[in-house]
Automatic annotation (TrEMBL):
This is Septum formation initiator family protein. InterPro entries: DUF501. It comes from Bifidobacterium oedipodis.
């Protein structure tokens, strides 16, 4: 275990400490259900909130009730955030990110670390909840570690884990600022 790995594990543990300190309550679940239009099965906690307090992304357990393996531990729920990520995808920007990954060694390394952090985060969560990772071991989200396939997943990681956790998620957040920004409430679901 090298120093870089230890840093990732420690960061994952700190993040999970924070997540589990404030587990989802009925109000959170109700809001996320309204955002998704379905009950958020396996939701552990709200991982990121709008400045107004409404959920932007949730943390979901590695095994859903009923035994269904669920690799997308950080899941984007805020409608404005979802829309903004979809707009970037529709504009064909994912190809730009893939080209950047192919040509930029430092970016590739940082994206690889984002993948490792995602896995360490889920592993820590699995251990604390007693969930098996048998069917999702080594699988993160969004195309990591070598491709960019879903900006929603990458943006969710950035929102839950903060700036610096995922370089592509950071770029997406910067790019959509005028449309979605966690520090500017543009929430449309009012209840
Ligand atoms: Zn808001």
């Amino acid at each position: 275990m090298n120093a870089a790995n230890n840093d990732i594990i420690q960061r994952a543990q700190e993040l999970i400490d924070r997540i589990l300190a404030e587990p989802a309550n009925d109000r959170d679940i109700e809001l996320v259900q309204a955002q998704l239009g379905r009950y958020p099965r396996g939701m552990v906690a709200v991982g990121a909130r709008c400045v107004c307090g409404r959920p932007l992304a949730v943390v979901t357990r590695p095994v859903l009730p009923g035994g269904i393996p669920f690799p997308t531990t950080c899941y984007l729920t805020g409608p404005e955030a979802v829309k903004a990520a979809s707009h970037v995808e529709a504009a064909g920007i994912m190809q730009d990110y893939n080209d950047m990954l192919a040509s930029d060694e430092n970016l590739r390394a940082a994206y690889g670390r984002a993948h490792e952090l995602y896995l360490a985060f889920r592993h820590e969560l699995a251990e604390r909840l007693g969930d098996s990772e048998e069917h999702i071991e080594g699988t993160s989200a969004g195309g990591m570690p070598v491709r960019v396939k879903c900006l929603h997943a990458l943006l969710a990681q950035t929102l839950v884990m903060g700036a610096g956790a995922n370089p592509i998620g950071d770029m997406v957040l910067e790019r959509v600022k005028d449309e979605f920004d966690p520090s500017v409430c543009r929430c449309s679901i009012i209840d």
